[in-house]
Design a protein that fits this description.
With 145 residues, the protein is an alpha+beta fold. The protein has one domain: Thiol Ester Dehydrase, Chain A, CATH 3.10.129.10. The chain contains 2 helices and 6 strands; from the N terminus they run βαβββββα. A hairpin with a 5-residue loop joins strand 4 and strand 5. The longest helix is centred in the N-terminal third of the chain and has 18 residues.
Length: 145
């Protein structure tokens, strides 16, 4: 079976911490896939808020997820605090990938690597749109510094 491979960036300019709740734990006694995506969503919202942005309205457009990938390195358990680091990569005409490195805060044990492909979306028109220039200027590696 082919395995998903993610190439993480070297630098992660943002990190937030989230606690694994008992409701995030599945029948295996560890953090579930669905809950991990929820934690990544919360971290992404915090990342955007840190930059004065709102996921539902960035220059009149929202974000919508086109794909996601999770590569687990170890289990995470209720009560643990996860440090979720975020970097942006692979910019294209319509969006980019949010890349995540998830570690357990105290031990620094790697829990997972992840990515969510995000594109800009006009919810009124129900259509994908080009990246707003202010977003590109703020985050794109080819933006003028």
């Amino acid at each position: 079976m082919a395995r998903i491979k993610l190439d993480l960036p070297v630098n992660f300019p943002f990190t937030t911490e989230l606690r694994v709740r008992i409701t995030d734990v599945n029948y295996g006694g560890h953090l579930g896939n669905d809950a991990m995506l929820g934690l990544l969503h919360e971290a992404r919202v915090r990342f955007l808020e840190h930059h004065g942005l709102n996921e539902g309205n960035i220059d009149g457009l929202g974000l919508i997820m086109t794909d996601s990938a999770l590569v687990y390195k170890s289990e995470a358990f209720a009560g643990e605090t996860l440090a979720i680091s975020i970097a942006l990569a692979d910019f294209n005409k319509y969006g980019c990938d949010f890349m995540y490195r998830i570690t357990e805060k105290t031990s620094r044990r790697e829990v997972a690597w992840a990515k969510t492909g995000m594109v800009f979306f006009d919810y009124a028109k129900r259509a994908i749109q080009k990246i707003p220039q202010p977003f590109r200027d703020l985050f794109s590696p080819d933006a003028a510094v």
